[in-house]
Amino acid sequence: MKGKSVIVTGAASGIGQATAELFAREGARVVVSDIHEAQGQSVAARIRAKGGDAMFVHADVSKPVDMEKLVGETIKAYGRLDVAVNNAGISGEQSPIADLSIEGWEQVIRVNLSGVFYGMKYQIAAMLKNGGGSIVNVSSILGAVGFAGASAYVSAKHGLLGLTQTAALEYSAQNIRVNVVGPAFIDTPLLSALDEEMKKAVVSLHPIGRLGRSEEVAELIVWLGSDKSSFVSGSYHPIDGGYLSR
């Protein structure tokens, strides 16, 4: 990854933070992006303190203008875009379909699905100018199966698989690889609302007997972003402790 420039959205915590830090350790120049300014600045500063090259750009993935600005700031600082990780997402309102609010549905779709489209639109345009690149979209195990009470989230994460496959068909021949990862329940701030009993119930869904760690997902993402995965495009990669094997 030495010398390559990388955007990671949702990089202020969890999977995004671990991914940004691992890319930096591998020699990449990393653009840490999030809506949480203080946390994002802290991640970028920590990378720099360890000898890495990183900067923070505030961006709301649900706003096309922000995603265009994010790519523009990356090009301005580093001259090119080589890898983009579209990781930002929200769990959103949890209700059965008949009880889910319209705004609850629209908010999740805006962030988790449209936000990735907005990112890819500008990321691909930039990558075409420098002869290629790699895009990794972060879906979920719920991109492959349903989950009661999470219709908006499940729909958005399923949509990312189709969006990724279509992008791979359109751009693989132009040296832009596009893949999607599907983490199971990972021990991140998104799960902080669960009490101990609920957490035990979630753990029990994973045959491996524990939740995943952000660093484990980061390893997969960085591999997909690197030249080591040069023949991999249009693929869905679960990282789920056996969840989908049940």
Structure, described:
- The chain is an alpha/beta fold.
- The protein has one domain (5-241): NAD(P)-binding Rossmann-like Domain (Rossmann fold), CATH 3.40.50.
- 44% of the residues lie in helices and 16% in strands.
- It has helices at residues 14-25, 37-49, 64-78, 102-129, 151-171, 196-203, 214-225, and strands at residues 5-9, 29-34, 53-58, 83-86, 133-138, 176-183, 236-239.
- The protein has a seven-stranded parallel beta sheet with strand order 3-2-1-4-5-6-7, with helices on both faces.
- Strand 2 (29-34), helix 2 and strand 3 form a beta-alpha-beta unit.
- Helix 1 (14-25) crosses helix 7 and helix 4 runs parallel beside helix 5.
How would the blueprint of this fold be written?
Blueprint lengths: L4 E5 L4 H12 L3 E6 L2 H13 L3 E6 L5 H15 L4 E4 L15 H28 L3 E6 L12 H21 L4 E8 L12 H8 L10 H12 L10 E4 L7
Parallel strand pairs: 1-2, 1-4, 2-3, 4-5, 5-6, 6-7
Helix pairs in contact: 1-7, 3-4, 4-5
